[in-house]
Amino acid sequence: MATRVLQRVGRGLKETKRGLRASGQPTLTARSLAAFREDSWFKSLFVRKVDPRKDAHSHLLAKKEDNNLYKIQFHNVKPECLEAYNELWYEGVLPSIHEDPEYPCELVGTWNTWYGEQDQAVHLWRYRGGYPALTEVMNKLRQNKGFMDYRSERGKMLLSRRNQLLLEFSFWNEPAPRPGPNIYELRSYQLRPGTMIEWGNYWARAIEIRQQNQEAVGGFFSQIGSLYTVHHLWAYKDLQSRENIRNAAWQREGWDKIVYYTVPLIQHMESRIMIPMKTSPLQ
């Protein structure tokens, strides 16, 4: 059976080759095969061969020197309530919780979306200590009457909310407070299942190209929530600076090839331009 299938495939290839010759179209030559092999060899420089049965992707891609877990929240606010929502954030119980050492969590950044999905707030927290730290904070918040009152009042202002738990890529810098004024871009990628290792290997090189203007803030991949999701967070002085920096990347060696090989890994992508709220450590 297998032999007959191979024979039919061989005959089909010969017929195709004869047809190409008759039509004047180029056929596979030694030179084209060599070019194909060279292209495959070049791709192998980027892609690290990993057997997923031997280790979890999170262990291969995340930082090992710390135990940070991140939570990102997206709040879609009723348009008429956005100003009141921001004021409640500033004046409510959250600033005191963020400063309380009894809560093992840090506010990394908090923004309103400027371009992208409108009337939206985005919040990013870091939990030093991983899942136990997250569990400890959640348990304490349930016992905090001030927070529960704040949550009840906030709920009246929201249309929807969602969150994800994230790990940070080992090759990105850890997000650190920075002075402003800046705008921030959150680029979110939904990858094809099974391609996270490839993405990490390509971007381990790509980030070296994109660090030259210090615009890279943080890179994360999801663990709980929408899976095979990647978030890249960038900071720019303004929209024109963003345009100039992104265009300049195309002039650097290797950037075009990285884009060429990563685009097929993406199912969906989204860009948000965000403005920091006044209590955000990332300004």
UniProtKB/TrEMBL annotation:
Secreted is among the record's keywords: no
Superkingdom per UniProt: Eukaryota
Pfam families with a match to the protein in the record: NIPSNAP
InterPro entries cross-referenced by the UniProt entry: Dimeric_a/b-barrel, NIPSNAP, NipSnap_domain
UniProt GO cellular component terms: mitochondrial matrix
Domain (NIPSNAP) ranges: 184-281
Subcellular localization: Mitochondrion matrix
Keywords: Autophagy, Mitochondrion, Transit peptide
Any single biological process term in GO: mitophagy
Described function: Protein involved in mitophagy. Accumulates on the mitochondria surface in response to mitochondrial depolarization and acts as a 'eat me' signal by recruiting proteins involved in selective autophagy.
Similarity-based family: Belongs to the NipSnap family.
Protein name (Swiss-Prot/TrEMBL): NIPSNAP domain-containing protein
Source species: Salarias fasciatus (Jewelled blenny)
